[in-house]
Structure formats: structure tokens, C-alpha cells
């Protein structure tokens, strides 16, 4: 029995160890070592990187990143939930094609798709030209190189990751429950608030995590759509590893980010667990 | 963006897909027409150099691993070299200087025979003791290099690196959108009101600070914190008027008219000039305060197990008719006057900055490895990009 479990779990465990546990352990180790003068890592223990990370400058970058990622997650949820709901209520033969359309953008690199947004949003781009041709504007709208464009790029890029888990949780929902609610006098709004929403909360939580985490660490979108005019924590880490060749400090910043995300995940799990217990008690 | 401190080149390769249209238009037309004559003359040259050099059993053979940016070797260069010498070349592509330096870091300076990196990175690799001290006696075609190419501050005498391409950073602008032609870096740093939000600066640390350091009269390799903070304050003022920090698409912004004046590498400004519709209204200039001299270099690793073949490869690229195809492809200058003389006069006329002489280039300040000051620079740049 144990042997069969090991065989079944083996590949996943090996994958986890090689591609997650080992790299994270390396990050942890590097974060407390010293940078060599010409790059590289010198094995001298130091807490200096932690002290440097406490600089208000980096805190400001982190807070900005948290805000950007939180807004992107919220917007993706507001768009993604109705979309997922709609897909789940389509006739079954339509669902698969629509789901495929949802994930279709993943067939192209996010980098390429982000460049495409530059073509659409810039001052001489499709939207501004179209609006000008229609006589709706005289001055081009500033749609690119600002926070709006960053949010747009993140929501666009990660929306499918919001839709899929929510779709899965809605699809699993037993329609009898909604009928029962209606029979007991619940209006559509109340049924949604008291039945559908709580039962799809795990999907919402998963979708929010799937959007929030990569948004927080993203550095391509702020570079390309933000015009490089603002720094997110991903840019900060990238710049430490690549430009400053300061791997230990980059590792420390990564470690802080990993810790923060870990804390969020635990909080989410705790929240869901509590809710489940309450539901059982009730 | 993803881009990094490499010289213009690697950034270019990064946005390569987007440079491709302009590049293909320019490079293919000139490139294909030159392919015939080049192939002919190379075989002739082999016969000559082959007999004069090592006739003993020492004739280089076998295989070498070369790392270079994508699209940075002319298409047929490696096949032609192999056909002529029998030496096999595995071309490993790196996206950035940091990429290849990171790989070398992980493998402690092994795994490659020849590596192309920007000058300041070659200096860093040499400081770590990974680069071969070059025996110029094995590079017969080094005689084609300009004398000035021997006097580059990061490696006087080319002891561990041979320049592959070189150039400058300056202002690239639309003559029809900029009312008064720029003369100074201040025209970028304090743009005229009509240019507000129509200027871009390079995003990578070394070039992001360059205009401010030049205006303040400091070195491009400045390590003094107070001086760097002065530059930071100047750049934070400029940021309010910027369209973007942009390493990869600035020339297409000029072409579309979204930007009117951009900080640019000379070779990349050429991609804008190559545009059929508005290219003739795009021009390049070097501000009066001066600029840098960047170079991408060829190096041999100390750990190489086939150094004779590595030398043969570099020597091959130093041949004027081969180096000339590098100009055709990249629209960068090569430090090889005999090669520059072979470039189609029509190309030279279309891209005037190709005509800069080695003496003019040498007025620029070579970018050096920042060593222990690199984290300070990264901090200063973060203060600028995270600042309001």
C-alpha cells in the first residue's frame, strides 16, 4: 500500500524537490551570503542584505506592487466571475469551445501579446486613431505608459486563470440547491448571495491567488506597458540579479516576496477552513 | 525590458522580433547581393592564409562552442567558416550579457570556447580570471583593425578581447517634429514644452544615467555616491516629461510619431532611418557634452580545450570581407576600416553615422565594469524608476 503510494507520488515529489524545494533552498541560502566584487556569491554569512531590504525605498516599491496586484485581482474577479457563470450555464456542447477560446491566448507568449497592446494603446495606436477618425477626440488619450496600462496588461494576461477555477466550482454546483432556495422563497439575488456565492468561494479564492501571485512578481508588463516609469518588486529583483549582479540581495528580496505569498496562502487556507467548519456546524 | 546593461547589441537582440522588419528590409537586400562575391573571395583567401600559417599538423580542427546574441552573426558566417576550415561551430545564443555571464558563473567559466559580450562584461570576466590572454601572433587579420581599436580603456592592447562592433549613444530624432535641432543632452533632459511626453530615454542603468552624468561633467563609470545622487535628482525632474524608458521600441515610436526625440544607440537609430516612409526624416546626433564608446567584443575562455580553432574563428571574422557582412546585418560600425571601405556606398549614404571615424569614436568614454559600485548604481536607478 505504502509502496504503491510512493510509486504514484514519486514523479510529482521528484518534480517538487528538483524544481521547487531545491531552488527555494538556494534562494534561502544566497540571501544570507555576500556579493563578490565582480558578481557571483562569496560564502560569507551576513545579515546585511536583510538590513538593506528594510530601506523605505524598497518598502515603497513593495506597497506599490501589492496595490497594483490587488486592483488587477479585483478587476479580474469582477470580469471573470460573470464570464465563468455564463460559460457554466451554456448548453454543454458550447462549453468546451468557449473554454478553449478562453485559454487560447496562452498559445502565444505573454511577451508578444504585451507588445500587441502597445500597438493598440499608443498615441498613434488603433484606439486613438479610431476615436480620432470618429471625431470623438481631438487630443490622443494617454492609454499607455501609466498605471492604467499596467493594470490592463495584468488583467488581460491573467484573466483566464481567474475564469477557469471559478467555472469549475460553478459547474460542480448542484442546480437542485438553487431550486431549493427558490422554493423556500429566496429571490435570485438572495439565492446568489446565500447559496451560489458561498459554495463557489473556493473557486474564487483559487482564481484570486492565481491572478494575484503572478501579478505581484510580474516585471514585463510594468516595463513594456508602464513605459518603465514605475518599478514593481519583480523589476527590483530582476535588476538585482541581472544589472547589479547582486545575487544575494536579489535572493533576499525574493525570499521576502516568497514569505509574503506563503503567508497569504496560509491565510486563505485558514479562512476557507473556518468557513467550511461553520457551514458544517450550521 | 527586460533588457540589460549590455551594449546596444543585446538589447537589440531582445527586441529582435520587432527589429526584424526593419532589419530584414535593410539587411537582406544588401546581404544577399553581397553573398556571392563574399563566398568567392573567402575560398581564395583560405588558400593564401592556409599555406602561410601552420603547415605542420597543427592546423586547427574539431569543434568549438560559441556564444553570441541571436541575429548577431550574419546568416551564412558559420556555415562558410565550417565549409572553409572544417571546424564545426555550435552557436549557443544568449539573450543578454547577464544571461551568458550567469551561465559562466554557474559553470565556473567553462563550457564555451568563444564568447561575445559587451566590453564592460568582458572586463568583468577577465577580472575573474576566466579569459585567455590573447596571442596576437595567431590572429593574422588583426592588422585590419584600426589602431584606435587598440586603445580602448577597458582593455588597452586588446589583451583579452577583440572588438567585434563599436558605436556611440546619442539623440535620434524626427527632423519634422523637432522645431530646433538638438545640440545638448539638456535638450533631452529639459525638453521644450512642445516635446513634453514625446521623448524617451534608454532604460538600462548605464545609459539611463549617461545624459545626466555628461551634463554634470562626471564620468560614465562614476562611483561617487554624491555625484550619482546629483544625476538622480536631474533625472527625476526629467521623468515628469518622459513618454517612457525604452530600450527596445524607441525607434518604432519615432517612426509612428509617438515620440519625437529619443536617446538611442547609433545602430538602433539606423533601424528607424531604414523605414521607407519616414526614415529620411530621422537623424542621429551626438550632443556637445560628449558620449560613450560602447563595444561588443570577442573573447576566448581560458578553459577552452580547442584554442587553435577558437583563434581561427576570431581571425576569420577579422577578415574585411567577413566583417563587412556584420555591418550589413547589424548596421553597426566595425573597428575594421578595411571592412568599412567595402560597405555599399548607398548604405553608407543612407546611414550617415556609419561614417564616423575611429578617431571620432575614441572621443567617447569607454564603459567600464562597475565592480563594487554596481549595487549602488542599481539602487540609484531604482530611486529614479520608483520615484514620482
Q: What features would you describe in this structure?
A:
- The complex is a heterodimer of chains A (282) and B (388).
- Chain A is mostly helical.
- Chain A has a single domain, classed as Orthogonal Bundle (MetI-like fold), CATH 1.10.3720.10.
- Chain A is 77% helix and 1% strand.
- Chain A is built from 13 helices and 2 strands.
- Chain A has helices spanning 2-30, 48-53, 56-89, 92-103, 110-121, 126-133, 147-172, 175-183, 188-199, 201-217, 220-224, 233-243, 247-281, and strands at 34-35, 41-42.
- A two-stranded antiparallel ribbon of chain A has the order 1-2.
- In chain A, a hairpin with a 5-residue loop joins strand 1 (34-35) and strand 2.
- The longest helix of chain A has 35 residues, at 247-281.
- Chain B is α/β, with parallel strands linked by helices and 388 residues long.
- Chain B contains 16 helices and 11 strands.
- In chain B, helix 3 (77-85) links the parallel strand 1 (63-69) and strand 2.
- In chain B, helix 2 packs antiparallel against helix 12 (320-330), helix 7 (205-216) crosses helix 8 (225-239) and helix 9 packs parallel to helix 10 (266-273).
- The longest helix of chain B has 37 residues, at 16-52.
- Chains A and B meet through helix 3, helix 5, helix 11 and helix 12 of A and helix 4, strand 7 and helix 16 of B.
Short description:
The complex is a heterodimer of chains A (282) and B (388). With 282 residues, chain A is mostly helical. Chain A contains 13 helices and two strands.
* Tertiary shape of chain B: globular
For the largest interface in this structure, which chains are involved and how many residues does each contribute? Answer: A-B, 41 and 43 residues
Largest sheet of chain A: 2 strands, antiparallel
Shape of chain A: globular
Count up the domains of chain A: 1
- Oligomeric form: heterodimer
Broad CATH class of chain A: Mainly Alpha
Gap from first CA to last CA of chain B: 20 Å
According to CATH, the homologous superfamily of chain A is: MetI-like
Radius of gyration of chain A: 23 Å
Determine the fraction of residues in helical runs of chain B and give it as a percent range.
40-55%
CATH architecture of chain A: Orthogonal Bundle
Largest sheet of chain B: 6 strands, mixed
List the total number of helices of chain A.
Answer: 13
Encode the helix/strand succession of chain B as letters: HHEHEHEHEEHEHHEHEHEEHHHHHEH
Measured between the Cα atoms of the first and last residue of chain A, the distance is 37 Å
Chain-averaged pLDDT of chain B:
87
CATH topology of chain A: MetI-like fold
Number of beta strands of chain B: 11
Radius of gyration of chain B: 21 Å
Number of strands of chain A: 2
Amino acid at each position: 500500500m505504502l509502496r504503491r503510494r510512493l510509486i504514484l507520488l514519486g514523479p510529482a515529489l521528484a518534480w517538487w524537490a528538483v524544481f521547487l524545494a531545491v531552488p527555494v533552498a538556494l534562494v534561502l541560502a544566497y540571501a544570507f551570503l555576500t556579493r563578490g566584487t565582480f558578481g557571483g556569491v562569496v560564502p560569507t554569512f551576513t545579515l546585511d542584505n536583510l538590513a538593506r531590504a528594510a530601506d523605505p525605498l524598497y518598502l515603497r516599491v513593495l506597497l506599490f506592487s501589492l496595490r497594483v496586484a490587488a486592483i488587477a485581482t479585483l478587476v479580474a474577479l469582477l470580469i471573470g466571475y460573470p464570464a465563468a457563470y455564463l460559460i457554466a450555464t451554456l448548453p454543454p456542447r458550447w462549453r468546451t469551445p468557449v473554454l478553449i477560446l478562453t485559454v487560447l491566448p496562452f498559445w502565444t507568449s505573454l511577451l508578444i501579446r504585451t507588445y500587441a497592446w502597445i500597438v493598440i494603446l499608443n498615441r498613434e495606436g488603433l484606439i486613438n486613431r479610431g476615436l480620432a477618425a470618429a471625431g470623438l477626440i481631438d487630443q490622443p488619450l494617454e492609454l499607455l505608459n501609466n498605471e492604467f496600462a499596467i493594470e490592463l496588461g495584468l488583467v488581460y494576461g491573467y484573466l483566464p486563470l481567474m475564469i477557469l477555477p471559478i467555472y469549475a466550482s460553478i459547474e460542480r454546483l448542484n442546480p437542485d440547491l438553487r431550486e431549493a432556495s427558490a422554493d423556500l422563497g429566496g429571490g435570485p439575488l438572495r439565492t446568489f448571495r446565500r447559496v451560489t456565492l458561498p459554495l463557489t468561494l473556493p473557486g474564487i479564492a483559487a482564481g484570486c491567488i492565481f491572478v494575484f501571485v503572478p501579478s505581484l512578481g510580474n516585471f514585463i508588463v510594468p516595463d513594456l506597458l508602464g513605459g518603465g516609469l514605475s518599478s514593481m518588486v519583480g523589476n527590483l529583483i530582476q535588476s538585482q540579479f541581472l544589472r547589479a549582479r547582486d545575487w544575494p540581495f536579489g535572493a533576499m528580496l525574493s525570499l521576502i516576496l516568497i514569505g509574503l505569498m506563503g503567508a497569504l496562502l496560509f491565510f486563505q487556507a485558514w479562512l476557507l477552513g473556518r468557513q467550511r467548519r461553520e457551514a458544517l456546524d450550521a | 525590458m527586460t533588457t540589460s546593461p549590455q551594449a546596444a547589441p543585446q538589447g537589440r537582440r531582445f527586441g529582435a522580433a520587432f527589429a526584424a522588419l526593419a532589419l530584414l528590409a535593410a539587411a537582406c537586400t544588401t546581404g544577399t547581393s553581397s553573398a556571392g562575391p563574399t563566398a568567392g573571395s573567402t575560398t581564395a583567401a583560405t588558400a593564401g592564409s592556409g599555406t602561410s600559417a601552420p603547415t605542420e599538423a597543427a592546423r586547427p580542427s574539431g569543434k568549438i562552442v560559441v556564444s553570441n546574441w541571436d541575429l548577431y552573426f550574419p546568416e551564412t558566417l558559420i556555415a562558410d567558416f565550417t565549409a572553409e576550415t572544417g571546424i564545426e561551430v555550435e552557436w549557443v545564443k544568449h539573450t543578454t550579457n547577464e544571461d551568458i555571464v550567469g551561465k559562466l558563473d554557474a559553470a565556473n567559466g567553462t563550457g564555451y570556447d568563444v564568447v561575445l559580450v559587451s566590453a564592460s562584461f568582458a572586463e568583468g570576466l577577465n577580472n575573474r580570471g576566466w579569459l585567455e590572454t590573447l596571442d596576437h601572433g595567431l590572429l593574422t587579420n588583426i592588422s585590419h583593425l584600426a589602431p584606435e581599436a587598440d586603445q580602448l580603456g577597458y582593455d588597452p592592447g586588446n589583451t583579452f578581447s577583440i572588438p567585434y562592433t563599436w558605436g556611440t549613444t546619442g539623440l535620434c530624432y524626427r527632423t519634422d517634429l523637432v522645431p530646433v535641432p538638438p545640440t545638448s543632452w539638456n535638450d533631452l533632459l529639459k525638453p521644450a514644452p512642445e516635446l513634453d511626453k514625446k521623448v524617451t530615454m534608454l532604460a538600462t542603468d548605464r545609459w539611463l544615467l549617461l545624459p545626466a552624468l555628461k551634463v554634470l561633467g562626471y564620468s560614465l563609470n562614476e562611483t561617487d555616491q554624491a555625484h550619482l545622487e546629483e544625476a538622480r535628482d536631474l533625472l527625476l525632474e526629467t521623468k515628469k516629461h518622459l513618454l517612457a524608458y525604452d530600450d527596445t521600441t524607441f525607434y518604432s515610436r519615432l517612426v509612428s510619431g509617438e515620440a519625437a526625440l529619443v536617446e538611442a544607440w547609433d545602430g538602433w537609430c539606423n533601424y528607424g532611418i531604414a523605414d521607407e516612409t519616414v526614415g529620411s526624416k530621422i537623424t542621429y546626433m551626438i550632443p556637445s557634452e560628449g558620449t560613450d564608446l560602447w563595444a561588443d567584443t570577442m573573447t576566448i575562455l581560458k578553459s577552452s580545450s580547442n584554442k587553435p580553432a577558437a583563434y581561427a574563428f576570431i581571425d576569420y571574422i577579422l577578415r574585411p570581407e567577413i566583417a563587412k557582412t556584420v555591418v550589413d546585418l547589424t548596421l553597426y560600425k566595425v573597428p575594421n576600416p578595411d571592412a568599412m571601405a567595402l560597405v555599399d556606398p548607398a548604405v553608407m549614404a543612407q546611414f550617415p553615422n556609419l561614417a564616423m571615424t575611429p578617431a571620432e569614436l575614441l572621443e567617447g568614454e569607454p564603459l567600464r565594469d562597475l565592480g563594487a559600485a554596481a549595487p549602488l548604481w542599481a539602487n540609484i536607478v531604482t530611486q529614479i524608476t520608483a520615484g514620482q
